[in-house]
Amino acid sequence: MSNQLEIRHIKYFLAVAEDLHFRKAAERLYISQPGLSRQIKQMEEDLGVQLFDRHNRKVVLTKAGTYLKSELSRNLKQLNDIVDHAKLLQDGKKGQLKLGYVGSAMQKIIPELLINYQIKNPDIIFSLKEMDNQKQIEELLNFNIDFGFVRLEEVPKTINKLCVLSDTFCLVLPENHAINLNTFKSISQLKNESFILFDPEYSKSYYNKVLDIFHESGFSPIISHLTIHASSIYKLVENNFGVSIVPKSLTLNNPDGVKFIELNSISQRTDLSLVWNKMNRNPLLTGVLNLFDALPN
């Protein structure tokens, strides 16, 4: 293989591999289409590998091209992260940690641990973004975030998972609902009520665990609304569209218009887990993992 392959060749290849269209890729790269075609042809010759099958109106990745797209995308992302880390070091920072989280992690785990950790380590930059469980897994696999907080039972083999909080569930009722702490005996008292639940797209395993609560109580719930936001659940409950069940960590902000009853007598718990990619090479990740390893079981 020639030693003339440069980063720009990789970027050219990835642009065509993503668009599967030389003209569109050339416009995005601000170079001419003939020039881009020559660069890709030269790359194929240098590698001794055909990357694309070219037809009159269609460009298709070969098997070798598909493999290189996956591997080069990942490695180029890591290279960009390394360069960004070097720039932060030059600016007097130790580096950056990017994390995703589901909303309930912001109620307890992130404020109590990560924000306090950053106060003691002001030379580390944290970038936080709320996203659903599956999106976090995708971003971890693509090295777009360093770690996340999810409510998932199963994760891909390349992802590590550590439980950081085991939550009980709480019933969510309108503030003026007849059932209260003194009169509540069993969730079966609410079998004729409409329930507002987290959408199974939020987490299929979490959704199934909530359904188990109903099944053990001897009834199937009337589900009137599905959502991915706790704030939507509370607003719907407050306005008497139904009742709900949420993790206890989502009750800490005491939203107006609703009341909570902890279901501490049932067996179901929902785990909030720290997740990260085993292949992540961010040197700052170890410090965060050590922080959670120190938590009491």
UniProtKB/TrEMBL annotation:
Q: Which Gene3D superfamilies match?
A: Periplasmic binding protein-like II, Winged helix-like DNA-binding domain superfamily/Winged helix DNA-binding domain
The answer to whether keyword Membrane applies is no
**Which InterPro entries has this protein been placed in?**
LysR_HTH_N, LysR_subst-bd, WH-like_DNA-bd_sf, WH_DNA-bd_sf
The record's Gene Ontology cellular component field reads: protein-DNA complex
Q: Which GO terms describe its molecular function?
A: DNA binding; DNA-binding transcription factor activity
Residue span, HTH lysR-type domain: 5-62
Say if the entry is tagged with keyword DNA-binding. Answer: yes
Keywords associated with the record: DNA-binding, Transcription, Transcription regulation
The similarity annotation says:
Belongs to the LysR transcriptional regulatory family.
Query: Which protein, by its recorded name, is this?
Result: Transcriptional regulator, LysR family
Annotated source species: Algibacter luteus
